[in-house]
Write a structure and sequence with these properties.
The chain folds into 3 domains: 173 residues, no CATH class; 190 residues, ATPase, nucleotide binding domain (Nucleotidyltransferase, domain 5), CATH 3.30.420; 86 residues, no CATH class. It is 35% helix and 25% strand. It is built from 15 helices and 27 strands. The strands form 7 sheets. The protein has a 6-stranded mixed sheet with strand order 3-2-1-4-11-12, sandwiched between helices. Strands 13, 14, 15, 18, 21 and 22 form a 6-stranded mixed sheet that branches. The chain is globular, with a radius of gyration of 25 Å.
C-alpha cells in the first residue's frame, strides 16, 4: 500500500493506493496556521481500518517552506559573500544583511587572491554583535575550491560558537554565484523550522506504528527520504505544482503533450508536459524575487480559484486574487466562482438557493440577471486562465528543453490537450480547452490528483561531473565534493562511466540506490586545453539524471 498526502491552499488531500489503483481518498480543510495538524488528520482518515504493517511508503507534498518564505516567517540570516573581482554583489538584491569579504578563486578552482582573514574576523564580530545565529557563507567559484568558504566558516564558528553555518559549496555546486548565494541563504533561513516539522512527522508516524519509509515531494517531481531532506529543505518548495504535474502523468495516457491546469480553491497552477516529460525550468525555482539552484518544473501559480472573492466596481467585475473563505453556497461569507458554476449547472457542489442568492446580489450591482451574472463570472475566470496559459507559452518557448523538443517534432507546439486536475477542473477545463482549440482531459480522481501524483512519484537525482585532467581533479557540482583523477587522456565515454558510478554512490547515500539504474546522460561535453601546440589536458563535463517518473506497477486510470 502507498499513501500520498498533498497540503493544498484550500484542502489537504490524501489517497491510498494498492495494487496500482486508488482504493481510498480523504479531504481535510487546510489550516495554514497548523499544516501539521491537517496533514495528520488526512493521514488518520486514510489509514482508518488499515493495518500499519501493510503500508509500504508515504509521500508528503507540503507547502511548509513555500508558505514560510511567502509569509516572511523564515529565520534571519547573515550572508557573508567572497565575490572576488569583477562582480558587484549589490546588484544581486540579496538583502541588507550582506557582508563582503575579500578573496578570490578562479573558474578552474585556483586561488588568485588570498582570503582576507582579518576582514572575515571583523565580519564575524559584526555578525555576532548584531545577534545573528545563522550565517550563510558563499564564495564565487567556491564549488570548485572551497578552501575560502571552509576557512571563513572556521572564523565565524570561533566568533559565534553556537552559530548554524551553511557553506555555499555544500548547498549547491552549480555555476551562477547569485543563485548559489540565494539558495544557501534560504537553506539557512528554513532549516531549523523544517527540522522541527520533520521531527513532529516522525514522532506522529511512530505513534501510529507506521514504520515504512517517509518521503517528501520535491519541486522537480521527484521524492526524497524525509531524513535526507533535512539538509536541503528548499528542495521542497513548489511541491504543490509538482504534485499536480505528476498527478496528470499518473492519471492520463502515457507520452501525451498536455498543458496542466490545476484549479484549486485558492490558486490555479500551470505546467507543461512534452511527450510525457514535464518541462523543467532551466533557471531553477524563483522564490519571490530570487532565482535559486532548486530544480523545478517550469510552472506558474495564478491567484484565482473556485473560492476566489468576486468584487464589483462600477460595471467592472473582478475575480480574485483574495480568498475570504469558502463559497457562499458552502456556508462562506461571499460570492465566488463556485457559486456561479452552481447556478449555471456546471457543478453540483453546495446549496443552490445560497448560490442563486449570491448571483442575484451580484446581478443587482451589474444590472444583470442571476444567470447572466454567473456567466460573466465564469467567463472572467476562463479568460484569466487562458490569457495566463498563452503568456506562459512565451516563457516556455525560451526553455532549452522546449526548443529541443520542438526541433524533434519539426513544428511549433500547439496545446494538444488541456489536462485539468483539482476541485475546479471538471466544470472549467472543457471551457478552457474549447477556447484554446484543444482537447479537454479531466481524469478520474482529478480532485485528488496531487495526492495521487505524490503517492506514485519515484525519486529523482542529478549529478553534474566536471573533470579537469590537467589539474588531475574532478568535482561533483551538486555536493561541492572534489577528488583526484590520474588519467590526463580520459575521454568522454570514460567520464560518462565515472559519472554513472558516482551517481549510483550518491543515490545509495541518499537512500534511493535502487533507482540508479534509471539514470541517463542528459549532457556531455569535452574541451581540449592546448598550450604550445600540444594538448595538455581536457575539461570534461557530464550531467546524469534520474528523471521524474512514476513507480513501476502504477496503472493509469
Amino acid at each position: 500500500m502507498l499513501i500520498g498526502i498533498d497540503v493544498g491552499g484550500t484542502t489537504t488531500d490524501a489517497v491510498l493506493v494498492e495494487a496500482g489503483q486508488v482504493k481510498k481518498t480523504a479531504y481535510v480543510p487546510t489550516d495554514h496556521q497548523n499544516l501539521l495538524n491537517c496533514l495528520l488528520e488526512a493521514l488518520d482518515q486514510i489509514i482508518a481500518g488499515v493495518q500499519p504493517s501493510r503500508i509500504e511508503r508515504v509521500v508528503l507534498s507540503t507547502t511548509l517552506i513555500t508558505n514560510m518564505i511567502a509569509e516572511g516567517k523564515t529565520d534571519p540570516v547573515a550572508l557573508m559573500l567572497i565575490p572576488g573581482p569583477g562582480t558587484n554583489p549589490q546588484d544581486y538584491h540579496l538583502g541588507d544583511d550582506t557582508i563582503i569579504v575579500k578573496g578570490a578563486i578562479d573558474y578552474r578552482g585556483r586561488e588568485i587572491q588570498k582570503l582576507d582573514e582579518a576582514g572575515a574576523e571583523k565580519a564575524a564580530a559584526d555578525i555576532s554583535a548584531r545577534g545573528f545565529s545563522k550565517v550563510a557563507i558563499v564564495g564565487k567559484f567556491g564549488q570548485r575550491n572551497h578552501a575560502h568558504e571552509l576557512k571563513a566558516g572556521e572564523i565565524v564558528s570561533a566568533a559565534i560558537p553556537n552559530a548554524q553555518i551553511e557553506l555555499g559549496h555544500r548547498v549547491s555546486g552549480q555555476l551562477n554565484f547569485p543563485r548559489r548565494a540565494a539558495t544557501t541563504m534560504l537553506t539557512a533561513a528554513t532549516k531549523e523550522k523544517y527540522r522541527e516539522f520533520a521531527d513532529h512527522i516522525t514522532r506522529a508516524f511512530e505513534q501510529r506504528r507506521i514504520s515504512c519509509p517517509i518521503y517528501i515531494l520535491k519541486a522537480d517531481g521527484g521524492t526524497l527520504p524525509l531524513q535526507t531532506s533535512l539538509e536541503m529543505p528548499v528542495e521542497t518548495i513548489f511541491s504543490g505544482p509538482a504534485a499536480s504535474t505528476m498527478g496528470v502523468m499518473a492519471l492520463t495516457p502515457p507520452d501525451q503533450t498536455s498543458v496542466v491546469v490545476d484549479i484549486g480553491g485558492t490558486t490555479t497552477d500551470l505546467a507543461l508536459i512534452l511527450s510525457g516529460k514535464p518541462l523543467l525550468s532551466s533557471k531553477g525555482a524563483r522564490v519571490d524575487s530570487l532565482l535559486t539552484h532548486v530544480r523545478a518544473f517550469a510552472v506558474r501559480s495564478l491567484a484565482i480559484g473556485g473560492d476566489s472573492a468576486i468584487t464589483v466596481s462600477g460595471n467592472c467585475l473582478a475575480v480574485g486574487p483574495q480568498r475570504l473563505g469558502a463559497a457562499l453556497c458552502m456556508g462562506g461569507p461571499t460570492a465566488t466562482p463556485t457559486d456561479a458554476m452552481r447556478v449555471l449547472g456546471l457543478s453540483g457542489i453546495g446549496d443552490l438557493g445560497r448560490a442563486r442568492k449570491a448571483m442575484e446580489d451580484l446581478g443587482r450591482q451589474l444590472g444583470l440577471t442571476p444567470t447572466e451574472a454567473a456567466q460573466m463570472v465564469v467567463d472572467a475566470v476562463v479568460d484569466k486562465i487562458v490569457s495566463e496559459i498563452r503568456q506562459m507559452f512565451l516563457e516556455w518557448e525560451e526553455e532549452p528543453a522546449y526548443r529541443i523538443w520542438e526541433i524533434m517534432q519539426r513544428g511549433e507546439i500547439e496545446a494538444q490537450n488541456v489536462a485539468g486536475v483539482g476541485g475546479g477542473a471538471p466544470p472549467l477545463v472543457p471551457l478552457i480547452a474549447q477556447r484554446m482549440g484543444a482537447r479537454p482531459i479531466v481524469p478520474d480522481y482529478a480532485p485528488v490528483a496531487n495526492a495521487v501524483g505524490a503517492a506514485v512519484a519515484r525519486p529523482t537525482l542529478t549529478l553534474s561531473l566536471r573533470i579537469d585532467t590537467e589539474r588531475g581533479e574532478y568535482i561533483i557540482a551538486e555536493e561541492g565534493v572534489t577528488g583526484k583523477v590520474g588519467d590526463r587522456k580520459m575521454n568522454l565515454e570514460e567520464a560518462e562511466k565515472m559519472a554513472r558510478r558516482l551517481l549510483a554512490e550518491r543515490a545509495e547515500r541518499l537512500g534511493i540506490g535502487e533507482y540508479a539504474g534509471e539514470a541517463e546522460v542528459t549532457y556531455s561535453e569535452v574541451f581540449n586545453m592546448v598550450r604550445g601546440w600540444s594538448t595538455v589536458g581536457r575539461l570534461l563535463s557530464v550531467r546524469m539524471e534520474i528523471p521524474a517518473g512514476l513507480l513501476t506497477g502504477w496503472e493509469r486510470c
